[in-house]
Amino acid sequence: MAHSISSTIIISLVHMFVLFTVLVSSASNTSNINYQAFINCLSNNSVDHNSQYPVYLPNTTSYNSILNNTIENLRFSSPETPKPNLIVTPVNESQVQALVICSKKYHFQIRTRSGGQDFEGLSYTSQQSLPFIVLNLVNFQGVDVDVANETAWVQGGATLGQVYYKIAEKSPTLGFPAGLCPPVGVGGHISGGGWGNMMRKYGLAADNVVDVRMVNAKGQILDRKSMGEDLFWAVNGGGAASFGIVLSWKLKLVHVPANVTVFAIPKTWQQGAVSLIHKWQFVADKLPDDLMVLVALSKSNGTTLALFQALYLGGKEQLLQIMNSSFPELGLKAQDCIETTWIRSTMFFFGLPLNGPLNILLDRNPRPKISSKTKSDFVKEPIPEVALRGMWRRVSLADNPLILIAPYGGKMDEISETGTPFPHRNGTLYHICYEVDWFIPRPDVATKQLQVVRRLYRYMTPYVSKSPREAYLNYRDLDLGRNRIDGTATYQRAKYWGLKYFNKNFDRLVNVKTKVDPDNFFTNEQSIPSLK
């Protein structure tokens, strides 16, 4: 990250124009940009005119280092991928305000990176023709936990792992219902909804936000009171990047027992995995809301496996009673169950050693980077077993596949589909994430893997939600459509994918966008359009 790059350039705003005069051609379109005027604008709009502003320039080795560290999906690391004109890592809120004001004035797009896990790379690259700046929130990683009030203020550049770790430092019986991957940044995760293995008990991450601080298109800092309930609603599940830059979130923490129970049971074809998945469909959304049983299909040493993985907010004996009553076919035994703390369960679900050092949750890059492509679906009716066999066969023939299936029900059924922009609530049995990975950075390998996941997605068409075929915003998928290359976002173009992500909430998001950002300053390939 920015603070670990020894060659980081910290440039006084009043002297930066000297270094802007030479820019390499790999950056996005740089013609007709008055960099000196842009620098002067940054200086004039920062609270402290003499403060230092971390800036990474394309003609320096530091730029390449920070850019490569920014890129999480190596699918977007090729020389042909458009590069930002600048990367900035502001150190205070005033510098973020100045960046918005000056970028708007001098026609830069801003791509905001929290953790960098956007599946289509939209937080650090652009497939549009406009010059752009990457705003890396690496210096906004604070997590301030208030145990007495059961809340936490979390800055936009923090990761889920940092949030979990800081909560557990203060209390063993408080937690937060968010994702399974500790390196994911809170900014994109929460603003897209943010499901996790406690969502059946407490809902999504976005359902547990009580306040927010963000910079709007005018460069103003707003909180929930000053922005109003419509904008607050929009940024909690509607993709905050369409509306502004979130500086920090105030989260409502939730109660967890001192000990929870987890298990992970792999099943092969020969062990009846497909029949178990078929049965799981009729059970998983109806289990007590303290229990979440996920299914993951993948390959290990050439063998296709279905992994049934669970978190129960209670003890082993209670879990065994529930499973043996509701899902005896899985054959759960006492030796399969592990009682542990909630914080260690977050390590378990990410595949980390259960008894390893907790500070690994603070690591922003705990695994080697790979190339990947992801798509998603929501399921309303159980899929026939014969169709599940076809899905299994396709996984078996693929290289490095992953299908993650997460059940709904519980709290997810109780929250209205209009409660947040995330509409996939009552009536949803489960969602599916389809992913393929690859490790060789060659175009032919990429083409093959993209074809694999797209064919699997087509195969599943008859068995998933319809009119629209729903999708999850945080599993970003540009196959569903995109705004124009010049950054123009039109309602007719955007509604094709907007209805998939947001269903009936799309029109309300468009109305909020039109009100707060009528000039469509905050835009990307799948941003909410303004009607202006």
Fraction of helical residues: 25-40%
Integer-rounded radius of gyration: 23 Å
Mean pLDDT: 92
Low-confidence stretches: 1-26
Number of distinct beta strands: 19
Which structural class do the helices and strands define? alpha+beta
Number of helices: 16
Sheet with the most strands, sense and barrel status: 7 strands, antiparallel
Strand numbers in spatial order across the main sheet = 16-13-15-14-18-19-17
Distance between the termini: 39 Å
Principal-axis shape equals globular
Strand residues, percent: 15-25%
Domain FAD-binding PCMH-type: 80-256
Cofactor: FAD
Protein name: FAD-binding PCMH-type domain-containing protein
Family: Belongs to the oxygen-dependent FAD-linked oxidoreductase family.
Which structural traits does this protein have?
532 residues; alpha+beta; 7-stranded antiparallel β-sheet; 5-stranded mixed β-sheet
Helices and strands, with pairings:
Layout lengths: L9 E3 L22 H11 L6 E5 L4 H10 L15 E3 L4 H13 L3 E5 L18 E5 L6 E4 L4 E5 L4 H11 L3 E2 L10 H6 L7 H4 L6 E7 L5 E2 L1 H4 L1 H7 L9 E8 L1 E2 L4 E8 L5 H8 L10 E10 L2 E10 L3 H11 L11 E3 L1 H8 L21 E9 L5 H13 L3 E7 L3 H4 L15 E9 L4 H17 L31 H12 L2 H12 L16
Parallel strand pairs: 3-5, 4-5
Antiparallel strand pairs: 1-2, 2-3, 6-7, 7-11, 8-12, 9-10, 9-11, 13-15, 13-16, 14-15, 14-18, 17-19, 18-19
Helix pairs in contact: 1-3, 9-12
Cofactor: FAD
Keywords: FAD, Flavoprotein, Glycoprotein, Signal
Protein name: FAD-binding PCMH-type domain-containing protein
